[in-house]
Design a protein that fits this description.
A hairpin with an 8-residue loop joins strand 15 and strand 16. The protein is built from 15 helices and 16 strands. The two termini are 43 Å apart. 35% of the residues lie in helices and 19% in strands. It has two domains: 244 residues, Bira Bifunctional Protein, Domain 2 (BirA Bifunctional Protein, domain 2), CATH 3.30.930; 98 residues, Rossmann fold (3-Layer(aba) Sandwich). Helix 5 runs parallel beside helix 9. The strands form three sheets. It has an eight-stranded mixed β-sheet with strand order 1-5-6-11-10-9-7-8, sandwiched between helices. It is α+β, with helices and mostly antiparallel strands. Bound molecules: adenosine-5'-triphosphate (ATP) and magnesium ion. The site of adenosine-5'-triphosphate (ATP) has 18 residues, from strand 6, strand 10, strand 11 and helix 11.
Length: 446
């Protein structure tokens, strides 16, 4: 048989390996419990949607729809489908399809993979995960501020202190139209300074030029007419309302007049949480209000606001925060020699799990079950607090040897089979030496 060539993951799509899984779990648990504490409910929508949904929701002249979508024809029936590039369109579709707002506004959250055909680089992948929230049916600045504050709580709980909030208002469609005319005039008067991409966007989506990262255009962009100066009373009052609540709750922010969103449906409040610790891809969360979206979908006018966090970037940031605890794989590792002992180990392992402890039972590899010594090495590597050892002598006496793996100088005990569960529970949860059971993410072993 000839050796097969290795098949690798699709470019720009990552595996999340066990070493990182505890960080993902910590993020997800934190995020979900915070969202719950603010009254948000979970919603799950399909990863595939009709292409038209995104074309309509996100806007035809955006980066996403122009060049980043994974779209294909379903070979079975010719349907045009797209792997979702973001979460809002699907959530809003579901809200309308199931009339979720019939009895009043809804606070929702979602998480899952998103797909964009971008150039892979640090913090930018073709499959990436977002955690997001949408509040549908709320019109005032209060919900905008609430969303921002729940993000702050997230960073606090995750220990991420080097993130800052940028805030802006992009007004409504009419205000943007008047600003747009002046903006185009400003850029046309300086046409030689524009790069090719900016020239291309000049008449399709000039607001996006403000987003440029091209250093040669920074001065031009800094001197451009500011959308904030075009806002009228209602938009200004909304923006002031958001700021008032944030100020009152000691939320620090900077107003960034150049902050716009890459997606068409946003209006009024836009915000980003950014960090300097991740290089060019420093935005870990982006959000804003999208009052026009639901009507664009054929629903009756219903305001909305939401945010999406890039989980990979947040995990990166969590890692950069210094040493991370290595989690224990289990509480107990079962070591056994001989068939009868293995049978006993299976039964005992089940009973220990019944008591709520995590047990890894030693199993055979291609070279066999392994010597006692090699099994003890595995027990050590597992991070278990205890090894439970059953050999021929133990079988003869109906006892197990229970060996503490983490505490220096702690005694090995000989425990009758029937007492092993109580003994372990007492040792592990009953103040028997500081093992912090039940909070695995924070357990460390060295
Ligand atoms: P960027 O300016 O970085 O391209 P964006 O405006 O396209 O971001 P949004 O569509 O607002 O991003 O998505 C919200 C968040 O999702 C971003 O702030 C970022 O944290 C994350 N994100 C977006 N695209 C990617 C990607 N290709 N890979 C990893 N994370 C991403
Ligand atoms: Mg993008």
């Amino acid at each position: 048989m000839s050796k097969q060539e290795k098949i690798l993951a699709v470019k720009g799509m990552n595996d999340i390996l066990p070493a990182d899984a505890p960080l993902w779990e910590l993020f997800e648990n934190t995020a979900e419990s915070i969202l719950k504490s603010y009254g948000y409910q979970k919603i799950v929508t399909p990863i595939l949607e009709e292409t038209g949904l995104f074309a309509r929701a996100i806007g035809a002249v955006t980066d996403i729809v122009e060049k980043e979508m994974y779209s294909f024809t379903d070979s079975m029936n010719g349907d045009l489908l797209t792997l979702r590039p973001e979460g809002t369109a699907g959530v809003v579709r579901a809200v309308l399809e199931h009339n979720l707002v019939y009895d009043g506004p809804k606070r929702l959250w979602y998480k899952g993979p998103m797909f964009r055909h971008e150039r892979p680089q640090r913090g930018r992948y073709r499959q990436f995960f977002q955690f997001g929230a949408e509040a549908v049916g709320f019109a005032g600045p209060d919900i905008d501020a609430e969303m921002i504050m729940l993000c702050r709580r997230m960073w606090d709980d995750l220990g991420l202190d080097e993130v800052r909030l940028e805030l802006n208002s992009i007004g409504n469609a009419e205000e943007r139209l008047r600003h747009r005319a002046d903006l185009i005039a400003h850029f046309e008067a300086n046409i030689d300074t524009l790069d090719a991409e900016a020239k291309r966007r000049l008449h399709t989506n000039p607001l996006r030029i403000l987003d440029t990262k091209n250093p040669a255009m920074q001065e031009l962009v800094n001197n451009a007419p500011k959308l904030l100066d075009y806002l009228e009373a209602e938009s200004l009052a909304h923006f002031e309302g958001v700021k008032r609540i944030l100020d009152h709750n000691n939320v620090q922010y900077t107003v960034n007049p150049r902050l716009v969103r890459g997606i068409d449906y946003y209006n009024r409040t836009v915000f980003e949480w950014v960090t300097d610790k991740l290089g060019a891809q420093g935005t870990i969360c982006a959000g804003g209000r999208y009052d026009p979206l639901i009507e664009m979908f054929g629903g009756k006018a219903t305001p909305g606001v939401g945010f999406a966090m890039g989980i990979e970037r947040i995990i990166e940031l969590m890692k950069s925060g210094g040493e991370m605890a290595t989690p224990n794989q289990c509480d107990v590792y079962m070591v056994h020699q001989g068939e009868a002992a293995q049978m006993q180990a299976f039964v005992l392992a089940e009973r220990i799990r019944d008591a709520g402890l995590d047990v890894v039972l030693h199993c055979a590899t291609p070279t066999g079950a392994g010597s006692f010594k090699s099994q003890m090495k595995k027990a050590d590597g597992s991070g278990a607090a205890f090894a439970v050892i059953i050999g021929e002598d133990e079988m003869a006496n109906a006892t197990a040897a229970v060996k503490p793996m983490r505490e220096m100088g702690a005694e090995q005990a000989v425990v009758p089979f029937d007492d092993v569960v109580d003994y372990l529970v007492d040792q592990i949860t009953g103040g028997g030496g500081g093992h912090d059971h039940g909070d695995h993410t924070h357990c460390t072993h060295h």
